[in-house]
Design goal:
The chain folds into two domains: 150 residues, 3-Layer(aba) Sandwich (Rossmann fold); 153 residues, Rossmann fold, CATH 3.40.50. The chain contains ten helices and 14 strands. Strands 2-1-3-4-5-6 form a six-stranded parallel β-sheet, sandwiched between helices. The protein has a six-stranded parallel β-sheet with strand order 10-9-7-11-12-14, sandwiched between helices.
Length: 337
């Protein structure tokens, strides 16, 4: 194998896609020297127009790639184009919108298993394999740190095609969680999908509990004082320009509670070594993500208690590291081909 490799990474501007591709590259960088060329896709330009307008001519000025990596549907044609004209091994992260056989390697989560000419069992792969299945999304794992804030995290998703969103159901579970853990402090962080009216519900609940002159029960005071609420763009103690502040906090938090519609956040929390509990929404029928999440629970990776017992967490604390396994296979395939 060469002592170093050149990687072209096509970027579509979507944070979830970028996080997975950089996780793969950082894992590769631990095994071999990598020269990485990040290539932003032309904004709001479909591939044929980008090709006709000459926006792809800049690729000629780059070192020829050994690996070409893309994540997200918009990157597919760019990866194929780069492979055809500049060589290298084409790699897609996430399920492609075109045949997997068109690419040298597709990295897919287990719940996105696709029919291919040949199925390859997990971890029993040859260098001819065109599909590598992971348990979940690739995560760039940070070193676990001592919790500076003393707070556990509550991560909130939002409406999706897989789960029936309910402000009332999630709010009541959060209240139960905090009441059952009166000595703990929590920070709740929303996502881009979280409805604004959910925060209104939650803030109203908190204001109601700390309203001056109101006769309060002890647990009302506790759940008001022990919960800090932030939007996904809040600064907290980190710079607003740092997109990794949630991951930084996750690498410190002893407990992370996540709404079960957010599979990527569940998996990230597990990868960082936190004890993970789920706040549950009702799943729509034939839901592969719900099946994948229940499998994590069955393997004692996370806590899911329909009776809302939020005090106990029977969890396997062994960290998941799919990015490292994926990088090892990419290099094995690259070396043999």
């Amino acid at each position: 194998m060469k002592k170093s490799i050149t990687i072209w990474r096509f970027i579509d501007g979507k944070a979830g896609h970028e996080k997975q591709s950089i996780a793969a590259i950082n894992a590769l960088s631990k095994k071999i020297n990598c020269e990485v060329c990040d290539i932003d896709l032309p904004a709001k330009t479909i591939f044929p127009l980008a090709l006709l307008s000459g926006k792809l001519k800049k690729l000629k000025n780059l070192s020829k790639p050994n690996l070409i990596i893309g994540a997200g549907h918009q990157t597919h044609l760019y990866v194929l184009f780069a492979k055809k004209y500049y060589g290298g091994m084409s790699i897609l992260i996430m399920k492609p919108s075109m045949p997997t056989s068109w690419f040298d390697l597709c990295i897919l989560p287990e719940h996105d298993r696709v029919l291919a000419q040949k199925e390859y069992p997990d971890r029993i792969l040859t260098s001819e394999a065109k599909i590598f299945y992971t348990q979940g999304p690739l995560v760039d794992i940070k070193e676990r740190k001592k919790n500076k804030t003393g707070k556990s995290m509550i991560l909130i998703g939002g409406p999706s095609k897989n789960y029936q969103w309910s402000n009332i159901k999630i709010k009541s579970q959060i209240i139960d969680l905090i009441k059952q853990n009166p000595k703990d402090k929590f920070m709740l962080i929303t996502s881009r999908r979280t409805p604004k009216n959910f925060l209104n519900h939650l803030r109203h609940e908190k204001r109601k509990a700390i309203e001056p002159g109101k006769l309060l029960r002890d647990d009302d005071v506790i759940h008001a004082r022990n919960l800090d609420i932030y939007t996904n763009s809040s600064e907290l103690h980190y710079r607003k320009s740092d997109p990794e502040w949630i991951n930084e906090l996750m690498s410190e938090a002893p407990y992370v509670w996540v709404t079960n519609d957010s599979f990527s956040m569940i998996y990230e929390a597990l990868s960082y070594g936190a004890q993970v509990g789920l706040l549950c929404l009702d799943a729509y029928p034939n839901n592969r993500l719900n099946l994948a999440t229940r499998q994590l629970f069955a393997r004692k990776r996370c806590n899911w208690d329909d009776k809302r017992n939020y005090k106990k967490l029977t969890i396997n604390r062994k960290n998941l590291n799919e990015a490292e396994d994926c990088a090892a296979f990419i290099l094995k395939k690259y070396e043999k081909n």
